[in-house]
Every structure is written in structure tokens, then in C-alpha cells.
Fold these 4 entries.
Entry 1:
Amino acid sequence: MSSASAPPAVEHLDVLIVGAGISGIGAARYLKTGLPSKSFAVLEARAASGGTWDLFRYPGVRSDSDLHTFGYEFAPWRDQESIASAPRILAYLRRTATENGLDPHIRYHHKVLSAAWSTERARWTVEIERTDTGERTTLTCAWLFCAMGYYRYDEGFTPRFEGRERFGGPIVHPQDWPEDLDHAGKRVLVIGSGATAVTLVPAMARTAAHVTMVQRTPTYIVPVPKRDPLANALRTCLGEERGHALTRRKNIAQQRAIWAFCRRCPKAARRIIRWINSRQLPEGYPVDEHFNPPYDPWDQRLCAVPDGDLFKAIKNGSASVVTDRIDTFTEKGVSLRSGRELEADIIVTATGLNVQAFGGIPMTVDGTPVHLPDHVAYKGMMLSGVPNFSFAIGYTNSSWTLKVGLLCEHFCRLLAHMDAHGYDVCRPEVADPAMETRPFLDFGAGYIRRVVDQLPRQGDRMPWLTSMSYHGDVKLMRADSVTDPELHFTRAVAARPEEAAR
Ligand SMILES: Cc1cc2nc3c(=O)[nH]c(=O)nc-3n(C[C@H](O)[C@H](O)[C@H](O)COP(=O)(O)OP(=O)(O)OC[C@H]3O[C@@H](n4cnc5c(N)ncnc54)[C@H](O)[C@@H]3O)c2cc1C
């Protein structure tokens, strides 16, 4: 056959990372450093890197974790402020990508549509759409690493609000913030009580006529210092690398201690948070009505407010909180179950995300669709019955990236083990078919509960538990062996013609 009529060769990579957010950039750096001979690419559906930190553009958008733990272990956080705005986080991520030579590996406008595993060929075939041209392409990879985050990018979550169409002004979702929205001098209603709402309220209150946060249920809100004087002192005295490492250790211990205290002594934790809140709020403020949730601390994520900015806005009168239920939107605002009417020029629905696993892409294994609830997460990073596949889902009780860093290390060790023994395929399989399973994310938040039956499961024992403990994971992911009786390694059938013929 002449070369002119040969079908175009399909590109093949050792590893395909999908998503160029904090997880995908981190994974690429671990892979490039740990296994420099591996060919890899990072496919990113959007025109830019950064994921969450590029997508969200609402006023004040920031982390609520400190960047010494939310940032990478290998890339010191150099800013004076350890709670950082989205532009600073983005600059950090992009600088990390550049400094580590990752830019040439990232392919923008490449949206993964589906992935099909063939055991015979020991590879994934991945369908891709160019989001800039609409062109469809295919490539194959030996390993698929999913760093697509945990929510839908095309649409945030908004519950149905009665009479929504009657409201005369703009109704905005934080995930889709209009660039030209001018809230200066306007009355703003922010619906919600989560991290986004408590970020937006003080940020908008700086120029708005007034901002009212309307919540159905209060959330635990704790002030955190924007600057960490000890972190800055350590950096000055010990240099960036050692300062970062020490602050990171301190903050990991601190996050863990606070979480453990809240879980062990919920009543005391609730009292302490209430006391902190009441000290920051005006004299006589109804703290219990607006800041005393019906659940225990850390049943859902605590919301952090840097330097108590939300409380300051309430104290200076530029913001207020109303705890009630919205009955209906009206022409002028909202009408509440209590009978109260709130007028507004702009309504912001800070009502959350649509959680989605692995970008919602359909996957098949040897032609059989992967139905996620039928699969159990192995060490919180792979799926039972799905070969050569791993994913980056971080902690929900401390900084996301702490876990992602550890699982990337484990992933590199796993690939090295396969290379050393000539294995092509690695597939977790549950040995005990009677093993009890429970939700992958055991977290009470509404956005998780809405989709829990669409997500994979976790088991009741190792290696099928999804650990939320950094120290436990350091042992499991960094120190313990990558082999396990429930992780099966094989060679590709196609690579063993004598076996294929049997
Ligand atoms: C406003 C906000 C603030 C947060 N603050 C914190 C915090 O302070 N601390 C904390 O621990 N966590 C925080 N989180 C959670 C946060 O999302 C994660 O910690 C982290 O940013 C997730 O990074 P990621 O790279 O895993 O996913 P993402 O940032 O979501 O990135 C995923 C990337 O994958 C790409 N992608 C998705 N599907 C496809 C596809 N089919 N093909 C190609 N590319 C695809 C997306 O375009 C995106 O670039 C916050 C979340 C939000 C929304």
C-alpha cells in the first residue's frame, strides 16, 4: 500500500492528563520530574489554564485555604498574603507551569468527549473536540489521568425560584458573572450562605448601596487572618523553600487539629465559634438566628472569612443577613415566607455548583459502559474494574491539593513499578463481592447529596476507603508499597503473541 493512501497515524501517548487546573498542572509536573521518559500531554477544554481560578470572575473571588497547603509542596508560595485572590492563584499556577517546562505539553481548546479502554490493545482511545474549530480528533494513551475537577463548567446550580421571571433587574449566578455588571450604588441580594456568598457579600458591599445575604440555613463562619505573620517571618529568616515547608507543616497540623477537635467535641467547637462570631458582630446582634447552624461543625465545610471581612461589613452597616425562606421573586425583589419583602436592583444566586465526576465523559471498558455507582474507588484515586485510569479528587476537610500531591506521587511510583516489571495493565478488583459500600464523598453538603447516587462508591476497608486524613495518606501513598493483592498487573495480550494465539 502506498503511503499516500495509508490512514493518518493516531497519536499515542504514555499518559494523557485531562484538565489544566491546579490538579492537572500538578500531575504533569510530578510526571515530568518523576518519569522524564514518559510521553504525555495535558488536554484542556478551555482557552486558558487554571480551571476554577480562571472560570470564576465574581467580585472578591479568593481561596479560603491558605496557599501554603493549597499550593504545591514543590513550589513555594511567595506572597505576603496566605489567603489569596483568584488572580494571584492563577499567576502562581501559570508561573509553576512555565518554570517546570509544562507549557508545551498543554493543549488548549481540547475537550475530551469520551474514552474507551481496550484490554487487548492495553490502551485508551480518546475522542476529542477542538472547542475553537469544532474539529474532532482521536488519540490513544496507555494511561488516562483525570484532573477535570468535580463540577460542571457549563452551568452552576440554581434551584427553581417561583416568579423568577417577574424580577425586573439582572439575576446573576457567580459561575457566569457578566463582565459589565456594575453594582456600585445598587441594592444587592445575595441568595446563599456558602463560601461564595460570604466572599461576595463584603466584596460587593464596598461599593453597593447595601448587600443583603438571604439564607435558608446558617453556615459556620470563622474569621482567618489573611496574612500569616509566622509564615512571612519564616520565609524571611529561612528562605522561600524552607519557610514554605515549615509553614506548610504548621498549617497541615493546624487544619487537622481544628477538624479533629470539631469532630470530637462538637458542642465545645460550636460554643467557641459562636463566641468568636459574637465578638466580631455588633452589640446585641442575633447571633443564633444567623450564625448558628442546625448541624455540627465540619458536618459541612466551614466557611472562612479573611480578617473577618463579612463581620466588618455587617458592623459598618453596608451588609446584613436575613435567615428566611424565599416564597417568590417579585417585580422589585423577593417575598419571604415570614411575609417580609426585600427590594433589590440585582439578585445574585450564590446557590452552588452542579457536581459531576470526571467531566461527565462517557467511558467504556472493552465495550461495556462504566456506570460509576457500580465502581468502588481504590485508594481514592482509581476505580475497580477500570484499568490504567486514575483521578485527582482532593480533600474536602482541608486543602484539596494536599491529597492531589500525594496521589500524584503514588501514581508515579505505580507507573515506575509497572515499567520495572514489564506490566502494561493495572486493574483494581474488589476481592470480596460482599464488601459493604458507601458514598465516595461522605459529606453532608447539599451539592454532594444531590448527586451522591451518580458518583462512584467507597468500601469499608483499605484499600477501598477514600481517606480524608493527610497523615494517613502520607503513609499509604508515599511510604507503603504500590502493590496490593487487589491490584492486578498484567501484560497486554497483543504484546504476547504466543498467549494471544492460545
Ligand atoms: C470559588 C471556589 C473556591 C474554592 N476555594 C478552595 C479553597 O480555598 N481550598 C480548597 O481546598 N478548595 C477550594 N475549592 C475547590 C477547588 O475547586 C479545588 O480545590 C481545585 O481548584 C480544583 O482543582 P482541579 O484542578 O482539580 O479542578 P478544576 O479547577 O475544576 O479544573 C478542572 C479543569 O479540567 C478542565 N476540563 C473539565 N472537563 C474537561 C474535558 N472534558 N476535557 C478537557 N478539559 C476538561 C476544565 O476546563 C478545568 O480547566 C474552591 C472551589 C471554588 C469553586
Note: The chain has a mean pLDDT of 94.
Entry 2:
Amino acid sequence: MTEKIKFIHCADLHLDSPFKGMSTLPDSLYQELKNSTFAALDNLVNLAIKEQVDFVLIVGDLFDQSVKSVYAEMQFIIACQKLNKVNIPIYLSYGNHDYLEARQHTFTYPENVHIFESDQVEVKVFSKNGHPLVGIHGFSYSERAVLDNKTTEFQPVEGLAYQIGMLHGSIQQSTEHDYYAPFQLSDLQTKNIDYWALGHIHKRAILSRNPAIVYPGNTQSRSIKESGEKGCYLVELNQMETKLTFKALHAIQFDRLSVNVSDCQQVDQLYDLLYQRLSSLKKQKSIIFLTLTGVNQTLVSHYYQGEIDEIIMLLNEQQQDQENWQWIQAVEIERERQVNEARLKENDPFMNQLLTDFEDINWGQLSKDLWQHRQAKRFLVELSEEEKIKLVNDAKDLALYHLLGMNNDENK
Ligand SMILES: [Mn+2]
């Protein structure tokens, strides 16, 4: 009977991610966050040793930047050495973040590290108990983009029990924006490959079961856009079936939390409610983006006067020294918009001008000074369209609150 194999499939470790935009965290938490991609790597090593896997696959974007830091590279080498001691090989390909062209090889990797150095698909053979068993196919990005469909280059090797394809890329969407080794699902399904180890998409997904075509997602979220658990797949392959088990590796989780506060009349009640809700959450290091729903008029005015922020500050202060801290990074309120904008515009030339200005914002012009500021620009991140819309709506709500107060019913 053919031996079964057990391995870890991970991708997108993004070691040394800078966590731009999160520097408002208290220093000690920010340091933990900056260290989190390395903590996830540590968790990966421990899992591999505990599960006694045959090998580990890392499918691209191991490093966040093409010009990697000595610190990040040394941390990775130390991790590899730990696995070398217990004879666990690592198969590594580079992706669009850590592509080959910008890399300088100044480090010697331990002998258990097998790197796909070419932008052409190559095969490396894994042997178990002296017998060649698995053909592992892969390539690395030589530049930031790979426009070709690479799937034609994957050719199964005769005489091996298992074939694995490592592919950092995404499903073809259109002809214009496919920079990342675009493929069709059918390209992968029709090859004689037993397991497709994908990378690049940070949200984990099993695209197909037979053969298994899998994105493990990244190992540590980098922002609230990547909420929830993050980790890798532990894969057990035999001739009959593929068993996939997700294993969390993240050190810090990003989460959204929505709390209905319709029973709260005052801020002290809000404090009690939030305190209870936070206490009921799973005890783990997490960065929470909070939304309050069912907010009454009194709380709305507290919100705009910055008083809810003080409640949050108080809750956060109590967390700071906890082992498993839960930090509320942002709070927003969700409420029905009460203002009839069309009516306001019609009745009041000033309001008409103000609301029209909100509709027509020149972002380039507005943010120019900030982007050109020598120190400020280091902390800036590009906003998505969604974020811009939200920012405009929040600003408009704030302006209207201050101009009209709570009782703007006469405009309805
Ligand atoms: Mn990535």
C-alpha cells in the first residue's frame, strides 16, 4: 500500500508587515502587533513539530516586501533551523510581494529549505523512507506581476504516488487586470495533480474537493479587512481521500463587533453593557471595530461630543495590562439618517452649497499637502472607494449635527 502523507500548506505570511495606520495603539500593543506575523510563524513551526508533518509548503508572499529586512530574514532562518533539527523540509516559492528580482541572496538557508528559484515551473521530489513519493511543482515570481497562465507548465512526473502544484495567483477575471498568474478552475481540475496549494488570496477558501484546490489565506490579519481566524491547512493525503483541517496560527485577531444599545439611556449604562459584552467574548488578543446600533438621541449627542470615546478609552485602559487584551480600535454609530437633504437644499442656499460640496470632493487636491509632508506621508495609507464614501458621510453627519443640532424636525 502506498504511504500516506501529511503536510502543512500555508501562504502569505507577510513577515514584517508594517501595520500602517495602527500606530495609534499604545506602544506595547503596537509592538505586539508588529511582531504578530513572526508569532504566527512560531505557531506554524510548533504545529509542524507537534503534528510530525512530512513537509511544509509556503506558497508565496513569505515576506511583505521585496526588499526584506535582515530581521525578517533571520527570523525565518531561525524557524527553518528548528524544523531542520526534526527533519521537516520546507518548500518555498515567492509571490508578488517578495518577487525574485529585488531579492539579494546574502543568507545561507539550512539544507531543509527547498526554494523554487525560477519563474518557470520546476519539480522537486520529496522522498519518504528512501523512496521518491511526491512531485512538488512550483515557480516564483521574478517580477511584481505574472501575466501568463502558468498552469500549462505543470506536468505530472511519472512514477510518483502524489503530485502537488504550488501556485501563487488568482482566478482569471478579465483580460485587463490579471497580473497574478491568472488561471481557470478547469485548468487545475483537468491536470493530474492531487493537491493544488494556492496562495495570494488572503481569505481562505476551498475551491474544489477533488482534486483539492485550496487557498489557506494569510497567517495573520493585517487590518480589519482581514477579520476572523487566520492560519493554515493541515493536509492528509492518501490514495483514497484528502483530509483538510484548518489550524489557526494568528497571534492577534481583528474583529467586528456590533452591539445593540437601545436599552441604554445614558453613557454609564453604555459602559456597563459594553463591559459585559467584552467579558463574554473569547479571551484572546483582539483588535475590535465596534458598531453601536439602536442608538437613542441622547447617545448620539454624546457620540458627537466625543463622550463615547471616553467610555471606550476607559474600557481600553483596563485591557492594556491583560494577557489576552481586547482593544477597541474604533467606534461608530449606526442610525437612521434623520435629515431630509433634498428639503434642506431647497430651503437654504448655504445648506445647498455645503451639501453640494460634499458630493463633489477633490481628494487629490485635499490630501496633497499631507501626502507631500516629509513625516506625515510615512504613516499614510491609500483609502479605498468604500472608505472614502464612509469618511464623507461621517463628516457630513458631524457637520449637520453641529449646524442643526438634534431637533431638525422642522426640515422634514
Ligand atoms: Mn499576499
Note: Residues 407-412 have pLDDT under 50 and may be disordered.
Entry 3:
Amino acid sequence: MIMALIYGYGYRYYYDPTYILVLIGVVISLIASAKVKSTFARYNKRQSASGMTGAQAAERLLYAAGIQGVGVTHIAGNLTDNYNPSTGMVSLSDSVYNNSSIAALGVAAHEIGHAIQHDEGYGPLKLRSTMVPVVNFGSSLSWILIVAGLVFGRYQFLLNLGILMFCLVVAFHLITLPVEFDASRRAIELLDRSGILYGDELKGSKKVLKAAGFTYVAGALTAILQLLRLIILFGGRDRD
Ligand SMILES: [Zn+2]
């Protein structure tokens, strides 16, 4: 609908050369998503010698870290694993919860890495959590402001406000990077120290987490490209 409105105001998406920025973002994201799926599938075929499932490993790592009040639960879907700081729940997906592959254990430990970050009051996670409510509507609000700015005859103040809103979205994507990389670093350390994985197994697990990390890099890049496009299309030029 918003696209149609903008189109109506003369911003022809079909011939808009900045659309290439959006396409680059889409391609990078598709590559990242394909890469994490194929890497997970590859190391999902390899069972760990410890034979622990993702859920068992998660419980054990929480216990070892002395973290209380965090639960481990099952969530439907694929690669939907997450830790929710507000509910204190580690949710593990179909292919992780009941699975003892080195890929599954890597993902499970990564989510425990987030729980430990939360427990320790890790700065970037705190900042990220505070930003969630803003960013949830920031992206749509940004477009609403931009459309409003165009409706009122390229009202630059609203356009700039819209662009500023989108800067917050970009900032959110950027602050996600240290949170994710740190959780993966912790995961490998936890798996190693606890003996849940060892030797060669850790390398495979690391590759899965690295591929997962790349999807966040792709997300950040996509957001930056979108911001760049907004600046090119609607940035602070005066009306002529
Ligand atoms: Zn994560």
C-alpha cells in the first residue's frame, strides 16, 4: 500500500535506479540464508560422541553456569531457536531440541550464551533489549513519516524524521552483531569446557555458528543499503 502511495506521488519504483540497493540486500540475505541452511544440514548429519540432545546440553550448561530461573522449551519450525530475555526462556527448534548432532548442540549452546549474557548484564544485549520496542514500530513509522512528508508536498522535516527513524533500525542491526558473535564465542567455549563436544566436533559446530552469524551481517548490510536508498531518494535537499 505504501509502495503504491509513493508510486502515486511520482517515485517510479520500476525505473528507480536506487532499487538496485534493495536488490543487493535481497541477494546478500538469500545467500546468507542458504549458507546457514546448508551448513546446518551438513553438520546435522554428524552425531556428537557425547550423545546429548540440544535440550539436555542446554539444561546442563545453564546448571554449570549457575543460572536459575531460565527454562528450556521446544519451539516449532526450523532455525527458530532463540532466548527471550523478558520471559527467561530458551526455545529450541525441532532440529535442535531432541537432536544430538554437533550442529544442534552448537545452536543450543549459542542460546545459552545469550542467557549468560543476560545474567551477566552484558552491555550490548541490554542496549539491544531496550531498543526492541522502538525498532518494532520504527521501520513502519519511518515509512509513514516519509509518505506523510511526500503527501504534504515534500515536507523535508517529516522526511528527515523518517530517515532518522530508519537510522535507529540500522543501529539495532549493528548492535545485534556483537551480541550474536559473543554468544557464539561463548557457545564454543561452553561446549569445550563442559566436554559436550570435543576436538574436531567443535570445528563443525563453529562453522554452523559462523554461518548463522553471517545472516546477521547480511541483515545489517541490507538495512544500511535501505538507509542509503532513503537518503538518496528523500534526503535533505531543498525543494526547487
Ligand atoms: Zn543468537
Note: Residues 1-8 have pLDDT under 50 and may be disordered.
Entry 4:
Amino acid sequence: MNHDSDRPRHVPVLLRRADEILGPALESGGVLVDATLGLGGHAEHFLRTYPAIRLIGLDRDTEALRLAGERLAPFADRITLVHTRYDGLPDALRQAGLPERGSVRGVLMDLGVSSMQLDEAERGFAYSVDAPLDMRMDPTSELTAADVLNTYSHGDLARILKTYGEERFAGRIASEIVRRRAQRPFTTSAQLVELLYDAIPAATRRTGGHPAKRTFQALRIEVNRELESLEAAVPAALAALEVGGRIVVMSYQSLEDKVVKQIFAQASASRTPLDLPVELPGMGPEFAILTRGAEKASETEIEENPRAAPVRMRAAERIQAAG
Ligand SMILES: C[S@@+](CC[C@H](N)C(=O)[O-])C[C@H]1O[C@@H](n2cnc3c(N)ncnc32)[C@H](O)[C@@H]1O
């Protein structure tokens, strides 16, 4: 795939809002962790706007890291890029010579797939083009979407389609996968899309969006262990923040947003036992929530960048050192 420098650069999602929230924490410098570096759009903005910060950029996709490295070359002396899942954040901090707790001023997590991953048909994330059933965000990892389809039991297939895809017809689709793979193993997305057109009743198709949408989402979450990784990464990111440090997380589907919401709710709750009438000293909440519910992109932003349509942003600030 050719990555010309004249290739259009996608505008980072909710950039202005992310800047409004993280900016006050970064004005006097410190470390910003971009846990989902992608093509480095957000990272470039923050490095340019806050000349005293140092950036640690993480991504599990080696190609994204290479391209972001090229884009951020003008800031080479202020950046450390690390190939890791975002739950590897504590190790990445240690490698950069920082304690894993209380050493970071800002964390940004812009979850999901990058526009580059979606645009590169051969990586198999898009159901609209026929491609190998891959879907690995980290091309060096083992499990592919084809492996899941060809080796998982009926029960496991139905479970992931239902839980990660919120697919009503999970059981029926799982049965059809098991039946068809006995004749011919799955290798391409067109085989799967054809199956989904056959398995999902036409009446539902008219209201439920593209029949492949939910199954592709479920496979992607399974292949990349996305929720497990997030459930470990958000607490690690919160622990890494110093007092006054802020975190912004942007989710693109409800399961991710639910994980973030729950962890933030716990982190912003009082630690004083419920039966005590007054807050015990030092037992108040460690975090304050900075967003009201989950914030969405404006109509104008969605018009300019349809990929911003599903985004849900949540943010928090550490107001007390970890107990
Ligand atoms: C939406 S893109 C980020 C775009 C970026 N903010 C920009 O402005 O260019 C999400 C990135 O997160 C990476 N990613 C997704 N899950 C990850 C995980 N568990 N660990 C590390 N990186 C992950 C993907 O590989 C992708 O490059």
C-alpha cells in the first residue's frame, strides 16, 4: 500500500474539545500519553500547541507507529513511541524512565480502528470490500478473524456474536458458520457477508443496518481482545495520572463506553464507608468527572467527518493522590 505524503490526512475526532480538556493540564509541560497514537493527528496537535510537553505514544499497530513516527519527526527529541497494547502502559512508562503511578499530566485514548486500518482493504476490517478475514490491529499477533470462524465452537461463536455484536440472530449465524465451514473453511469477507445475508431475515435487514455490521464488530473485538485490553488500560491510565492530570477517552461503540463509564464512576466515588455521616480525611474521591454524561460530536463535525458520528467522549481529572 502506498502512503504518499499527499494522501489526505483525516481530521482527528473532537480535537477542539480534547484540547479544551487536556490543555489546562499541559500548559506547564509534563508527560502526555497518547495511548492510541494511530496516525498521530491528535499527538501532532498537542506537541505543536504545548511546546513544553513530552509525548509517549502507544499503538499495537506497527504500521501506524511507522507512519506516526514520520509525521512526528519534527518533534523527535520530545517523543517516545512504543509498540504495545494500551494495557502495556505501565511497562511503557517504566521503559521511558517514569514511575507507573503519578507521573503523567495527560492521557488520551481515541479507541477503535484508525482510518488507515479501515482504508487498507487487505486488513479485512471493512465488510464493504472482499478481503482476507484478518482484522488484526497488531499484524504480529496470531489470531485472525478466519481462525475464530474456522475453529471456535458453536457456543463460543454464538456468545461472542451476542455479547460483542449485540446480534439478535447470534445462534442462527453460529449454526450456519459451523455448517458452511465443514464444506469450505472461511478465508474471505465475501464468504461471511454472503452467509449473513442468508442467515438474517430480510425484514430485519431493512431496519437493522448492514447485516454484516454487528458480526464484523464482534469478530474485531474478539480478535483484538479489545474489551479485556480496555478494562486493564483505563485503571492503569488513571493510576499513572498525577494530581491535576487529566484523561480523555473517546469510544466508538457502546460496550467500550460502558467499560469507561463504570471505571470512571468508581474512581470518582467517595472512599468513605457508606455508613459514616462525614467524609473521612483523605478518603474523598480521587477523580472528578469533567464531562456531563458522554459527549458527542457536533452535527457540523459529523457532516465533515462521518467517522465522528458514533464517538462518545468521557473525561476526568485526578483531584487527590492515590490512597
Ligand atoms: C482511532 S485510531 C487513533 C487516531 C489518532 N488519535 C489520530 O489522531 O491519528 C485508534 C488507534 O488505536 C490503536 N489501538 C486500538 N486498540 C489498541 C490497543 N488495545 N492497544 C494499543 N493500540 C490500540 C489502533 O491500532 C489505531 O491505530
Note: The beta strands are 30-34, 53-59, 79-83, 104-110, 241-251, 287-289, 312-318.
